[in-house]
Amino acid sequence: MTNALNEAPGLLRICIVDIDQRPSKGSFATMYTVFSTFAATSDAAAFKPFLCIPARPDRAYFPDGVELSYGAIARQVCALRDLYRAAGFGHGHRACLLLENRPDFIVHWLALNGIGVSIVPINPAYRAAEIAYLIAHAEPDLIVTLADQKELQKALTGDVPLLTVSGDDLGASVEKVPHAQRPPPRAGEPGSATEAALLYTSGTTARPKGCILTNEYVVSTGRWYVSHGGEATYHAGTERLYSPLPLFHMAGLTLTPIAMMLTGGCLILPERFNAKHAWRDIVACRATVLHYLGVIVAALLAQPETPDEKAHALRFSMGVGANPEQRARAGERFGIPFVEGWGMTETGRSPFNTVEPRHLETNTIGRSVPGLEMIILDADGNALPAGAVGELCVRHSEATPRRGFFSGYLKDPEATEQAWRGGWFHTGDSAWQHEDGAFVFVDRLKHLVRRAGENISAAEVEAVLTTSPLVKQAAVVAARDPIRDEEVAAFIVSNDDTDASRELAQDIFRFCRERLAAFKLPAWIAFVAELPLTSTNKIQKHVLLGADRDPQSHPGMIDLRQDKTNAIRQSN
Q1: How far apart are CA 313 and CA 281, in angstroms?
Q2: Among 275, 276, 335, 429, which one is most buried in terms of CB atoms within 10 A?
Q3: Which residues on adjacent β-strands are paired with residue 212?
Q4: Distance of CA 81 to the CA centre of its chain
């Protein structure tokens, strides 16, 4: 399709250029957006497949599965872009997207990006209170949603324009967009410095922080993902990437879709990961690359053997969160290397362990390279020698430490500068370095629970627990879990010395269920007479479960994992 997107003439070189090689000013920088990246590939490879949706007979959209070309998606993107522009939306506006993991999400994102509108993805598992906070904090100019989103309806209190779409026709049924209530805040055409997305990520605070991500961040992150080589070498125009990651997460939004746009490949987008169907889909969709999380590897290993797990065309898998034993077992059983890395929303570009020696017996995540410098610092900001455990800190370079990283936390400049103290971004993860330069991940320093690829703020769960009339004090910690890596464990001092019981635990669980997304709910609850405190009255969380973090070793721990599983199923 020649000149399908008139803003981006057919120059595939736009897609493959490294951000560190491009000029920072001029027309080329203006072209460096998510939209123009897609546009260049759609012009050069209009008939090649871009999106593949596996068949699922019980699904509302594309039950038989579908494969959509770059040109077909481009036509829908152009039509939607023109509708949004005619409605007054443009450079500097924000739009919340509640479109689940449907291909429509990508179509609307590209259309909005083409006129400089940033997207704010909403996790469909969020409860009304969580959505209300996100809307109030992000101050969107538009909300694009599927019909019958009950939690969103509960959360809506203002007059933000609402566009309800079917979510199964790539925006073809959208005939009219509600008019913008203010003119575009920014003049000129969108470029590399334009905000492309606002992603909310859990940290040490009770409320998620909004990470501002520019076009430069998004495109360079995708470019970084496909540039590692070695066992993780991408081939232009032939790759088919199976990505069971949610589009409201950094990896699902920036790594895998952009990687395919950059290389002219096809993104295989299941609605959600299902271990029972995964190998069938991988084979049927002719996947060549799999993106994993630790929970995905564990779930695949737990499945009975099937002929499909040997009949696939995968060449390698890239991801994070799988331990050495899992990767070794999976590699032997499935016949492909599992290439481990590390990443977080704030940093975008991620190291991957692709260069020998790889030290596969450890959680090695890669090496410091130009464009992503890594270092291990102590609590005073001093560099530590090889072998010493400290905080993993990263930057682009000494001259331009923040280049390609997030632009900051929305409405929280103090937190942004604190994270960047000393010219390095402080990740909150502990690590150490081999003598040969390879970095090894150890643990997190921040109070986070990493469950099945989700970062859950302990402070956020504690804040909800302590609003319950049944709870006097609460402390939340990460408990080991054989499938999901970690689970939420809550230690509770009950109010008025209420008798500790499973019934009380379930009452507290139900209280949280009304206020938190299901994946954040406590899977374990233990009632204690008091919480261990330091001399300055800080809770000693490391004492609560001990070094092994095994919840079943703690006397009186109440197992609510089935209750949580049921809540998650009900929310899906």
Answers
A1: 12
A2: 429
A3: 198, 408
A4: 25
Nearest CA-CA partner of 267 in 276, 280, 254, 250: 254
Residues in the chain: 572
State residue 205's pLDDT score: 62
Rg (the chain; Cα; Å): 23
The residue ranges of DSSP E strands in 309-461, in sequence order, are 316-320, 338-340, 364-366, 373-377, 390-395, 408-409, 425-433, 439-444, 448-451, 454-457
State whether the Cα torsion 279-53-149-159 is positive or negative.
positive
Mean pLDDT rounded to a whole number for the chain: 88
Q: Residue 264, Cβ neighbours under 10 Å: how many?
A: 23
pLDDT tens digit sequence for 290-306: 999 888 898 899 899 99
Pick from 337, 418, 342: nearest CA to 374: 342
Give the relative orientation of helices 34-44 and 103-113 as an angle to the nearest 10 degrees. 110
Q: Which domains does the chain have, with CATH numbers?
A: 13-272 (3.40.50.12780), 344-442 (2.30.38.10), 448-571 (3.30.300.30)
**Alpha carbon distance 217, 191 (integer Å):** 12
Question: What is the greatest pairwise CA distance in the chain?
Answer: 73
CA distances from 259 to 183, 265, 297, 342, 399 (A): 33, 8, 21, 17, 27
Residues 6+ apart with CB under 8 A from 419: 346, 409, 425, 426
Distance (Å) of CA 1 to CA 12, 72, 350, 536: 13, 9, 34, 67
Give the pLDDT score at 206. Answer: 67
Strand order in the sheet with 364-366: 364-366, 439-444, 425-433, 390-395, 373-377
Task: With H, G, I as helix, E, B as strand and everything else as coil, classify residue 115.
Answer: coil
Helix (H) or strand (E) holding 148: none
Cα separation, 475 vs 463, whole angstroms: 10
